[in-house]
């Protein structure tokens, strides 16, 4: 029959074997290894030091050691890392270091934890009385350390894999594009947050669903369908060709969204298909940009064609040698040519301003200006064009001076007055100013047809023109866009007063001082 201590030692070895297969949390595992080591050798204290490529040698866990001594051990281990000392040679040095500190009252035993002959750590156990650790103690601790080293390596690998998975999960969650991870039989294995928002559902609703039930199209998409790629075995197409674009059907009756899907197969080293990654990008903005581009070309082509045709027509007429034109006719023709040339120049200026303001390249030169005076000057300039209209200007007597760019504010007021007169056949145009705290506010209203509510969210967009306006009047759709750009450059705000029902009313607010944000 085995002696009691032999039985106890065997039980300890069985305990670490169970820890090897059961415990994967590194800190918990190290605490168990140290506790068993101390009990097995009838010690009262100890520590485990580990080494890795980032921190070198460091104190991983300790028991029964005073904080001051633990700090000293940690400092000593760091010195060993800097000196790149061999771990086996460190053990006698640790013994000597502890013996010096405790004035010979501590005896210790230590052993390295080796995996494939490479040290990953050290176990050290010591007693608070003089005594010699036997060869049997060393043998027991050595056997124990071998299994402990395997357990520590497995726990480290598990933690590394878990941390890597957490990083991948966080990365997928933060990606703006929707991500679907599919199994080889085309079922959803995982979906990120952007994808669930795009489809307006939860990830649990998607997992396990067939791809064809999740990604549904309104109309026929263009590009390579996933079914075609799987049938071909993914071998007939380059990565850039695995692309599909169309209108994605969303849930809960929401409007379809234009998307572009890129597919990427993931194969094992043996060539077995593991997963399919589908990257789903919302291309609504790209579609809008294309539409704006088309509208821009259409509008500019139309707007340029008319004045150019008029200028050419009148100039060609005046050059005819077979007609003796009267001076009044010549003067009238030259006035038309001059007006249309001015119209062209203004259009070019608006286009240049729109480009510069959009890119933020225009410097705003702010000085102290009299806003009331600027408004009255613009009204005086517009009087010849205000036939059939009445115009009123209402500002309080103590209206303050503001810090702004005089040229840009003149352009702002001019564009708003043009907008008011352009869409108003007759009636009153009112310009009202008031002071609200650190800001001034100006509203320009008319008694025209007003704005269609469905157009209001887009009125300040570049090149936007309502269906009604595009059929009844000329324009590039840049006037209100420039107004908003100018106001924004002055840290102000501009809006349409939708509560005004007698016509249209546009208000803007500017800070009195240059350093105030709206």
Low-confidence stretches: none
Classify the beta-strand content into a percent band: 15-25%
The biggest beta sheet reads: 6 strands, antiparallel
Structural class: alpha+beta
Number of domains: 4
CATH structural architecture of the largest domain: 2-Layer Sandwich
Count of DSSP strands:
17
Shape type? elongated
CATH superfamily of the largest domain: GAF domain
Q: How confident overall, as mean pLDDT?
A: 79
Under CATH at level 1, the class of the largest domain stands as Alpha Beta
The CATH topology of the largest domain corresponds to: Beta-Lactamase
Gyration radius, in Å: 40 Å
Number of helices: 15
Strands of the biggest beta sheet: in what spatial order?
6-5-10-9-8-7
Q: What is the helical fraction, as a range of percent?
A: 40-55%
Overall description:
This protein has 518 residues and is α+β, with helices and mostly antiparallel strands. It folds into four domains: 4-170, GAF domain (Beta-Lactamase, 2-Layer Sandwich), CATH 3.30.450; 175-282, Beta-Lactamase (2-Layer Sandwich); 294-359, Helix Hairpins; 367-511, Histidine kinase-like ATPase, C-terminal domain (Heat Shock Protein 90, 2-Layer Sandwich), CATH 3.30.565.10. Helices cover 47% and strands 23% of the residues. The strands form four sheets. Strands 6-5-10-9-8-7 form a six-stranded antiparallel sheet. Strands 12-14-15-17-16 form a five-stranded mixed sheet, covered by helices on one side. It has a four-stranded antiparallel sheet with strand order 2-1-4-3, with helices on both faces. A hairpin with a 5-residue loop joins strand 5 and strand 6. The longest helix is centred in the N-terminal third of the chain and has 40 residues, at 135-174. The protein is elongated, with a radius of gyration of 40 Å.
């Amino acid at each position: 029959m085995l002696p009691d201590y032999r039985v106890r030692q065997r039980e300890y070895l069985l305990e670490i074997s169970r820890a090897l297969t059961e415990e994967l949390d590194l800190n918990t595992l190290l605490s168990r290894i140290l506790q068993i080591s101390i009990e097995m050798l009838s010690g009262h204290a100890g520590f485990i030091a580990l080494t890795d490529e980032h921190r070198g040698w460091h104190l991983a866990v300790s028991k029964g050691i005073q904080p001051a001594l633990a700090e000293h051990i940690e400092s000593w281990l760091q010195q060993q890392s800097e000196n790149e000392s061999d771990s086996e040679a460190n053990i006698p040095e640790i013994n000597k270091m502890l013996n010096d500190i405790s004035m010979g009252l501590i005896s210790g035993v230590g052993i390295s934890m080796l995996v494939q002959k490479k040290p990953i750590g050290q176990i050290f156990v010591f007693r608070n009385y003089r005594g010699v650790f036997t060869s049997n103690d060393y043998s027991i601790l050595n056997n124990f350390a071998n299994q402990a080293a395997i357990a520590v390596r497995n726990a480290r690998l598990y933690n590394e894999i878990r941390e890597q998975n957490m990083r991948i999960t966080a990365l997928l969650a933060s990606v703006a594009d929707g991500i679907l991870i599919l199994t080889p039989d085309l079922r959803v294995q995982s979906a990120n947050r952007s994808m669930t928002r795009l489809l307006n559902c939860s990830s649990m609703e998607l997992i396990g669903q067939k791809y064809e039930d999740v990604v549904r199209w309104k109309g026929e998409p263009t590009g390579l369908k996933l079914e075609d790629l799987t049938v071909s075995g993914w071998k007939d197409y380059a990565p850039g060709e695995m692309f599909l674009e169309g209108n994605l059907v969303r849930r809960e009756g929401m409007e379809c969204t234009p998307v572009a899907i890129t597919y990427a197969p993931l194969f094992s080293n043996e060539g077995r298909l593991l997963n399919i990654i589908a990257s789903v990008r919302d291309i609504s903005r790209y579609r809008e940009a294309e539409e704006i581009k088309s509208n821009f070309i259409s509008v500019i082509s139309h707007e340029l064609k008319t004045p150019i045709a008029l200028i050419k027509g009148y100039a060609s007429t005046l050059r005819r040698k077979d007609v003796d034109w009267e001076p009044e006719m010549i003067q009238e023709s030259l006035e038309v040519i001059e007006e249309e040339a001015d119209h062209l120049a203004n259009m070019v200026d608006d286009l240049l301003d729109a480009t510069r303001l959009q890119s933020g390249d225009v410097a705003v030169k702010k000085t102290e200006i009299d806003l009331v005076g600027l408004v009255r000057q613009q009204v005086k300039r517009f009087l010849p064009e205000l036939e059939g209209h009445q115009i009123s200007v209402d500002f309080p007597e103590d209206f303050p001076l503001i810090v702004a760019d005089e040229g840009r504010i003149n352009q702002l007021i001019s564009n708003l007055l043009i907008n008011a007169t352009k869409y108003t056949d007759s009636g009153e145009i009112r310009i009202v100013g008031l002071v609200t705290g650190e800001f001034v506010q100006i509203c320009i209203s008319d008694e025209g047809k007003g704005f269609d509510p469905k157009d209001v969210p887009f009125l300040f967009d570049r090149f936007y023109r309502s269906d009604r306006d595009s059929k009844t009047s000329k324009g590039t759709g840049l006037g209100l866009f420039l107004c908003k750009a100018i106001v924004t450059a002055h840290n102000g705000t501009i809006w349409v007063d939708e509560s005004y029902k007698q016509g249209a009313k546009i208000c803007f607010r500017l800070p009195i001082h240059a350093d105030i944000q709206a």
